[in-house]
Design goal:
Layout lengths: L10 H23 L6 H8 L3 H4 L6 H26 L3 H16 L17 H28 L7 H18 L8 H16 L34
Helix pairs in contact: 1-2, 1-4, 4-5, 4-6, 5-6, 5-8, 6-7, 7-8
Length: about 230
């Protein structure tokens, strides 16, 4: 039986690293089984530790779910800021944001849960996550407005376009399996290509037929570290 997935670091970094492993394992269970189908005892068993040991890193299952959601929003905002600084057309910024977001959501180090069971969280936690989600979606809408103005995106309703894009990308976290035929970056490349074509004023004549043969660029944004104990004000 391995303990903490064989994570071994110096003493000063072990707490944060073990907590990252906990969030990653919890997120996988939340995405696969849902909040009510996930138990701390099962997570502890997979990590090779006692359930009591988990309370050193998180006070409750509800807070664990909140931290996973918060981690997803760290990824989203980081991707948005990276694209804002990259320049280019509105379509380029939109595509770069969505691709980086999905690459990190599907990455091995990610402890991300999409906001599907918000009623399982405390009202204060829900408000905090929704506020950050709205900030991210507003940034995406601004890229679309910019793209319409510079001619890279066809005239459309930015709000509906963002709802469509985020629905498609977030659901990928539910069906993606790391041991499947396609890697996270390959899926991110293929899905983003489809979304980009739907909005582009000069759509490509064809899309990649086999994501497994695609050679997407390496993720441009390093996955942000999971925050220690951020709670809503």
């Amino acid at each position: 039986m391995t303990v903490w997935k064989n994570v071994v670091l110096d003493a000063s970094a072990q707490f944060d690293r073990k907590r990252e492993v906990l969030l990653r394992e919890a997120a996988a269970s939340f995405n696969r089984r849902g909040y009510h189908g996930t138990s701390l005892a099962e997570i502890a068993k997979k990590l090779g530790v006692t359930k009591a040991a988990l309370y050193t890193y998180v006070p409750s299952k509800e807070e664990l779910l909140y931290y996973c959601h918060d981690s997803a929003m760290d990824t989203a905002i980081e991707s948005l800021h990276k694209a804002q600084a990259s320049g280019g057309t509105g379509l380029h910024k939109l595509s770069a944001t969505l691709r980086n977001y999905l690459e990190m959501m599907l990455g091995e180090e990610g402890g991300y849960v999409v906001l599907l069971e918000e009623n399982a969280m405390k009202p204060a936690h829900v408000r905090a996550i929704v506020k950050r989600r709205d900030q991210f979606e507003q940034g995406l809408r601004e890229f679309i407005v910019e793209g319409i103005a510079d001619g890279s995106i066809v005239p459309c309703n930015p709000k509906l376009a963002v709802f469509m894009a985020m629905g498609a990308l977030n659901w990928g976290r539910k069906w993606y399996r790391p041991n499947g035929d396609w890697s996270g970056p390959q899926i991110a490349h293929a899905l983003t290509e489809i979304l980009e074509r739907s909005l582009s004023s000069t759509p490509s004549a064809a899309l990649v037929e086999d994501p497994g043969r695609a050679k997407p660029e390496e993720a441009a944004v390093e996955a942000p570290k999971l925050k220690a104990h951020r709670r809503p004000a």
